[in-house]
Write a structure and sequence with these properties.
This protein is an alpha+beta fold. The chain has 7 helices and 17 strands. Helix content is about 25%, strand content about 30%. The longest helix has 15 residues. The structure holds pyridoxal-5'-phosphate (PLP).
Length: about 300
């Protein structure tokens, strides 16, 4: 981690290395935190945060689903995000707002503690992705089943969801794959460990409905809107493992992953085993949108 700029903590910008919490911080013990992952792109018109409003909305929705009382308004958090990026001097970065039950009372009940908020950002260049974004990634259908909304609110981007996701990710990496794909308790495709998933069969783009257990991804929504604005459509339907194996193309979407092609699932080659032409075209369209080159989607960018 390259330490750059400052980290916003409850309204104050503190030096990166001093942004510390007590070991008895509630969230460290009980996973009582929610967070966001946002990108700032270095566009030809200047640095711009992608879909800031939607990310801040989801941040507050996640907090609400866990009855966390935020001591800041959406406007204050949006302004704080922009300020943190500006102070960092970074042209392109990943931004991580976090709301967590802090230090105070110890024990399971979180509500006796205050909800602290931090915002950090760090350097992250466009196209940087660990899981073979351009060459095509190899995914393993996880033996870990995706946790279910009967146990936890799955539309919250909560730290507690990610123990399950991390088990799947590590299993995939240990077995020589780049990423995991998680099935839900009904055996239907939910999502990747940190991305939504789309398949293309006979030129029809399909993705699991949110009821399958995936996060309501902002990149997922962006890609669907881009496809629709370009005259296409996306079908939401439950997908089986067979649908993955027999797909012509597969891609994943996420703030970190952007639009990432998948060329192998388990030992099965997808399509020709290289990035398909629809995925390639979408990757290009998405890049144009985040770089402010597509006028139709300029409102999605908040310039620093
Ligand atoms: C579990 C999970 N699914 C999907 C996504 C994609 O969401 P987004 O496009 O909003 O980054 C993410 C990343 O935030 C994630 O962690």
């Amino acid at each position: 981690m390259k330490e750059t700029g400052k980290i916003w903590m409850n309204g104050k910008l503190v030096p990166f290395k001093d942004a510390k919490v007590h070991v008895l911080t509630h969230a460290l013990h009980y996973s009582t935190s929610v967070f966001e992952g946002i990108r700032c792109y270095n566009t030809p018109k200047g640095s711009a945060v992608f879909r800031l409003e939607e990310h801040v909305d989801r941040f507050f929705k996640s907090a609400k689903l866990y009855s966390m009382k935020m001591q800041f308004s959406k406007k204050e958090i949006s302004d704080a995000i922009l300020k943190t990026v500006k102070v960092s001097g970074l042209k392109e970065c990943y931004i991580r707002p976090l709301a967590y039950y802090g230090y105070g009372a110890m024990g399971l009940t979180p509500t006796e503690n205050k909800v602290d908020v931090s915002i950090a950002c760090w350097e992250w260049a466009m196209g940087e992705s660990k899981a073979g974004k351009f060459s095509g990634s190899k995914c393993k259908v996880s033996s870990w089943i995706k946790i279910d909304s009967r146990s936890q609110p799955m539309q919250a981007k909560a730290a507690s969801n990610y123990a399950n996701a991390a088990l799947a990710r590590v299993e995939a990496l240990d077995n020589g794959y780049d990423e995991a794909i998680m099935l839900n308790i009904h055996g239907k495709v939910a999502e990747g460990s940190a991305e939504n998933i789309f398949i293309i069969k006979d030129n029809v783009i399909q993705t699991p409905p949110l009821s399958a257990g995936g996060l309501e991804g902002i990149t997922r929504d962006s890609v669907i809107q881009i496809i629709e604005q370009n005259g296409g459509f996306v079908i939401e339907r439950d997908l089986d493992r067979d649908d993955l194996y027999s797909a012509d193309e597969i891609f994943m979407t996420g703030t970190a992953a952007e639009v990432k092609s998948v060329t192998q699932i388990d030992k099965v080659k997808i399509g020709k085993g290289s990035m398909g032409k629809i995925t390639k075209a979408l990757q290009k369209s998405f890049t144009e949108v985040v770089m402010g080159k597509d006028e139709r989607f300029l409102p999605w960018l908040t310039f620093i």
